Amino acid sequence: MLNKKPVKLLALPALLWMGALFVLPMLMIAVLSFLKRGTYGQVVYEFTLNNYIRIFDPLYGQIFWDTLVVAVLTTVFSILCGYPLAYYISRLEKSTQQIWLLLVMIPFWINFLVRSYAWVIILRSQGVINTFLQSLGIISEPLPLLYNSGSVLLGMVYTLMPFMVLPIYVSLEQMDRRKLEAAYDLGATPWKAFWHVTLPMTKTGVVTGSILVFVSSIGMFVVPDVMGGAKSALIGNVIQNQFLSARDWPFGSALSIVLMLLSMLLILLYFRATKASETKEGSA
Amino acid sequence: MKKIIHLDSIEKRFADTVVVPSFSLSIEEGEFLTLLGPSGCGKTTLLRMIAGFEQPTTGEIFLDEKPLSHVPPYQRDMNMVFQQYALFPHMTVEQNILFGLKMKKVNAAEQQKRLEEVLQYVQLTELRKRTPKQLSGGQQQRVAIARAIINNPRVLLLDEPLGALDYQLRKSLQLELKNLQKNLGITFIYVTHDQEEAMAMSDRIAVMNKGRIEQIASPAEIYNSPQTLFVATFIGENNIFRENGTNAAIRPEKIKLYPIDSDKDKHKKLGTIADAVFLGNLRKVFIRLEGQDMTVMAHQYAGDGLDWQVGEQVAIGWAQTDEVILPC
């Protein structure tokens, strides 16, 4: 039998890492959010609630709201595009699956900023799409494809899609195909079998993917920065600004804390909702 | 009796390998037919072709004289009880059982009526709100059967339905299944590798080996008059004597043991007791033949007054009528 003690030690490196690089900074942020900013951007060690009161300014409220809308839309579009892709991959031959999964993951190997700028080159007024359409004479003026909420959404879905595809693919792979055959056998058409058996049985993948995408998009600042222009600032950009340009660390910290609590609350609600639909199905 | 299913020159190939070589077979209405064979013999493939999950490479399957090759599984008037049951884990017992009726849009009142009947029939009324995870293997098996028979299928296909259960439970469920089949009058096509199961339940057994049906007959006929060496050795135990280009099969219970100095006219061969295994109602006696590289097995029932010891010399004999001559 394995001795428990050495096994416990195996978790130690990870615990130390997370402790030093995640828990401690989080505590520092929490403390910072209750302190004051000095005239030259330094932190003054005096307790205040002003940072939190400032968040209730309608300006920030609007940005929080916009961020949530973009995050929810990003999640929804990622499901709509990611699920069919994951489904398609899971139905391929094993060797072909490997190639497709690799293709899904390759963008991760390329710098994030480079990928965002690649989109700028495609979408801008003198970009690939506009030049092409103009040369065909389909449009006379370049279309405003960049620097709006649509382009931000496009960039976000593009960037975060792998986080949706992979967990859904895994749950599709784990699903016992005989359950699907059982559904066909009992008279379900392929579409009904998908709706009543495959989708409910792969819900875990969708939930996991949604949380990964939602949480990542809520704090995203590079994409809105590069593809959204000044008009489409999201909360991630505001926080980045507070820390880097405005040099107001306490306010940036307060925004971070509120953002974090808000995401946690929303994830909790999401869990509740998916659980509730499960029990509803269960009693119907 | 009326034919319900007819397989006409069915053949199945995967890539270039022939899994089921061409053959024809008719199944009668209300019959309990078992496809019996070792694993990998093609019996499950055959069942899946009837269900529609696999297409025969050539040939046609008829249900009530209608060809099925262009009928998808969800439009075939038969249901399957899957190996490991394939119950839907996200649904309750009730929802699992109702699934087929819901898919066929049977009206709600009828659904409820049939549900109550079936639940009662398989004795699951009290467990109706549970999910499959909360059930024992035997209970899951009942759900799988209920889920199939609620649709009143013309044919029920069963793929090793008792394979995952322990011995005692399997025994009692064999009888239950047989009774169910009699009472409902549904045609059963049953796949198993367990010959005892096949013997206990079937009207006819199709013994399969390497994709081929070696023999199809009643259990008694399969046992008493096997037509091939495979059937003779796969079903029950047998002693095969190879002589002059033929095989003679003699069942262990037909072999008689004699002390070497009595009944000399009945002696066929001489040997030495190599081993004797006590099994409760009988003893299996292994006899090493003299001058031959062969061990014969004989069953000795309790109370015959002969207590054979290992190392003893013995003569064996059998009635000529108990010999089954098989082609090589």
Automatic annotation (TrEMBL), chain A:
<keyword id="KW-1133">Transmembrane helix</keyword>
<keyword id="KW-0472">Membrane</keyword>
<comment type="similarity">
    <text>Belongs to the binding-protein-dependent transport system permease family. CysTW subfamily.</text>
</comment>
<keyword id="KW-1003">Cell membrane</keyword>
<feature type="transmembrane region" description="Helical">
    <location>
        <begin position="63"/>
        <end position="87"/>
    </location>
</feature>
<feature type="transmembrane region" description="Helical">
    <location>
        <begin position="99"/>
        <end position="122"/>
    </location>
</feature>
<keyword id="KW-0813">Transport</keyword>
<dbReference type="InterPro" id="IPR000515">
    <property type="entry name" value="MetI-like"/>
</dbReference>
<feature type="transmembrane region" description="Helical">
    <location>
        <begin position="251"/>
        <end position="271"/>
    </location>
</feature>
<feature type="transmembrane region" description="Helical">
    <location>
        <begin position="152"/>
        <end position="172"/>
    </location>
</feature>
<dbReference type="Pfam" id="PF00528">
    <property type="entry name" value="BPD_transp_1"/>
</dbReference>
<feature type="transmembrane region" description="Helical">
    <location>
        <begin position="204"/>
        <end position="223"/>
    </location>
</feature>
<feature type="domain" description="ABC transmembrane type-1">
    <location>
        <begin position="64"/>
        <end position="270"/>
    </location>
</feature>
<feature type="transmembrane region" description="Helical">
    <location>
        <begin position="12"/>
        <end position="35"/>
    </location>
</feature>
<protein>
    <submittedName>
        <fullName>ABC transporter permease</fullName>
    </submittedName>
</protein>
<dbReference type="InterPro" id="IPR035906">
    <property type="entry name" value="MetI-like_sf"/>
</dbReference>
<keyword id="KW-0812">Transmembrane</keyword>
Automatic annotation (TrEMBL), chain B:
<comment type="function">
    <text>Part of the ABC transporter complex PotABCD involved in spermidine/putrescine import. Responsible for energy coupling to the transport system.</text>
</comment>
<keyword id="KW-0067">ATP-binding</keyword>
<comment type="subunit">
    <text>The complex is composed of two ATP-binding proteins (PotA), two transmembrane proteins (PotB and PotC) and a solute-binding protein (PotD).</text>
</comment>
<feature type="domain" description="ABC transporter">
    <location>
        <begin position="5"/>
        <end position="235"/>
    </location>
</feature>
<dbReference type="GO" id="GO:0005524">
    <property type="term" value="F:ATP binding"/>
</dbReference>
<dbReference type="InterPro" id="IPR050093">
    <property type="entry name" value="ABC_SmlMolc_Importer"/>
</dbReference>
<keyword id="KW-0547">Nucleotide-binding</keyword>
<dbReference type="InterPro" id="IPR003593">
    <property type="entry name" value="AAA+_ATPase"/>
</dbReference>
<dbReference type="InterPro" id="IPR013611">
    <property type="entry name" value="Transp-assoc_OB_typ2"/>
</dbReference>
<dbReference type="InterPro" id="IPR008995">
    <property type="entry name" value="Mo/tungstate-bd_C_term_dom"/>
</dbReference>
<dbReference type="Pfam" id="PF08402">
    <property type="entry name" value="TOBE_2"/>
</dbReference>
<keyword id="KW-1278">Translocase</keyword>
<dbReference type="Pfam" id="PF00005">
    <property type="entry name" value="ABC_tran"/>
</dbReference>
<keyword id="KW-1003">Cell membrane</keyword>
<dbReference type="InterPro" id="IPR017879">
    <property type="entry name" value="PotA_ATP-bd"/>
</dbReference>
<protein>
    <recommendedName>
        <fullName>Spermidine/putrescine import ATP-binding protein PotA</fullName>
        <ecNumber>7.6.2.11</ecNumber>
    </recommendedName>
</protein>
<dbReference type="InterPro" id="IPR027417">
    <property type="entry name" value="P-loop_NTPase"/>
</dbReference>
<dbReference type="InterPro" id="IPR017871">
    <property type="entry name" value="ABC_transporter-like_CS"/>
</dbReference>
<comment type="similarity">
    <text>Belongs to the ABC transporter superfamily. Spermidine/putrescine importer (TC 3.A.1.11.1) family.</text>
</comment>
<keyword id="KW-0472">Membrane</keyword>
<dbReference type="InterPro" id="IPR005893">
    <property type="entry name" value="PotA-like"/>
</dbReference>
<keyword id="KW-0813">Transport</keyword>
